[in-house]
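Quick log. Single chain, no ligands specified.
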Amino acid sequence: MEKFTYYSGALLLAAAISVSPGANAQNLLNENFEGITVPSSSHYGTLELEGWEIVDRDPSLEYPMKWCVYDSKDKDGNHLNNKAWIDAMGISDAKAKGSDYLMTPWVQVDGPMSVRFSWSASSMALDAKKFDLRVRIVEEGQQPGDQDFIFSILDPKMVLESGIQPVDYGWYTVPWEGWAKNVSTLDLSDYQGKKVRVAFEYYIDGNQKINSIEVDDVSIFRTQAVTGPIATP
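-> predicted structure:
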């Protein structure tokens, strides 16, 4: 049975990162999914990018019930932006349970390094706890799910440690706001010397009270410059 596991030092407040993925940091990955063309007749398209991999809970399902690209349009049908998207609301199996994984290309963690990504979800996740966005770090020789997750939108401590401040409505406080564009940063330094990939996991438990998850603007970057030779993967 899976349980929430907090890795000491594995999560980092965004404000505590000494170098942003800008001028001095070195980007190993920077993906906004804009390079994918979605058919004009649909909002959904196949998410195919070099080095990325998808592991479907049920490959027979149609989009968006498995990871895909969502083409966001304005009221006139003009393209706004692409994002990774999954929404299992359409499944009919009341006992459906399991995970779909969207995995980045492999990267060599050769020093202090972080992954940053934006995400949005319905607040229904917090209320019903029937679906979740998790992050796992997959090492060579592992399958997604072999390891504990280091981030979950249902774990307020993990959300806070990733740099997202609670939202205070006056009479109650929530760890994040539904459908807001949240940006999380996770420290990968515990994996130094290893080749890893970041797995975004969409977990569902049944077909009731579940909703969509979107992920965008995924970057993996060194948080301090590498001054010596860089190991070849």
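The chain has two helices and 15 strands.
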